[in-house]
Write a structure and sequence with these properties.
Number of strands: 12
CATH class: Mainly Beta
Organism: Pedococcus badiiscoriae
GO molecular function: serine-type endopeptidase activity; signal peptidase activity
Subcellular location: Cell membrane; Membrane
Main location: membrane
Structural class: alpha+beta
GO biological process, one term: signal peptide processing
Number of domains: 1
Length: 247
């Protein structure tokens, strides 16, 4: 009787790739872990915040109606002092100039307040009391005066038209005559009757002006609330002012 066809032989089952790493076998390579991705994302966020853009929460009404309490804004940190123009809205560190005034941030000390503050800090929303947002009125060397016969501010002899002021506010209740020193800015809030700005520090070192080196950046866009999302533009009314002579 002829033997039947030879049955095909099967290879022994392969050992699981991850059965034992001690025998020198290689584990299969997987994709990057979620921890690595999270780390890279965090690094990118830190770099963006540190060098390109930063988010700020504005709790006060000193810049109404342009910026209202509760608004969140993004600040372009690539703007240098030489790039600033009259009418720009800037955020600056007021530790050396404005630290004792207009301390409007209010933090809730309850559980919800602490939780929200921690989350806001993580995503870059600054809740500190040393940063301020104001509008640039005078550049280095500018002669800023309040007020002319019609109650208007003048810069280098040119009267300002200020459509951004809060309705009913005067350009200033306080009179002043200032020449902005080199390397500094004269800044004011749009809600002039409720803004502790350069006018409030006329008797301080620097005469109320802010150092260019203290400017964090130019406010570029409001991203919250969504109903008021939009960018900030420099008023044309300030564009035609003649430049001051070099201080």
């Amino acid at each position: 009787m002829n033997p039947g066809p030879e049955s095909p032989q099967q290879d022994p089952p392969a050992a699981p790739a991850e059965a034992d790493a001690a025998d020198g076998s290689e584990r299969p390579r997987g994709g990057p872990s979620w921890l690595l991705l999270a780390g890279v994302s965090l690094l990118v966020m830190v770099l963006v915040r540190g060098f390109l853009v930063q988010s700020f929460y504005v709790p006060s009404g000193s810049m109404e109606p342009t910026i209202q309490p509760g608004d969140r804004i993004l600040v372009n940190k690539l703007v240098s002092g030489s790039d600033l123009r009259r009418g720009d809205i800037v955020v600056f560190d007021g530790t050396t100039s404005f630290a004792a005034a207009d301390r409007s941030p209010h933090q809730d000390n309850g559980l919800i307040g602490r939780t929200l503050s921690g989350a806001a800090s993580f995503v870059g929303i600054n809740l500190g009391e040393q940063d301020f947002v104001k509008r640039v009125i005078g550049l280095p060397g500018d002669h800023v005066v309040c007020c002319d016969a019609h109650g208007r501010l003048t810069v280098n002899g040119t009267p300002l038209s200020e459509p951004y002021l809060l309705s009913g506010d005067k350009p200033s209740e306080l009179t002043f005559d200032v020449t902005v020193p080199a390397g500094r800015l004269w800044v004011m809030g749009d809600h002039r009757s409720d803004s502790a700005d350069s006018r409030s520090h006329l008797g301080d070192p620097g005469g109320g002006t802010v150092r260019l080196t203290d400017v964090i950046g130019r406010a570029s866009v409001r991203y919250w609330p969504l109903t008021r999302m939009g960018g900030f533009t420099t008023p044309r009314a300030l564009a035609g002012i003649p430049r001051a002579s070099t201080p």
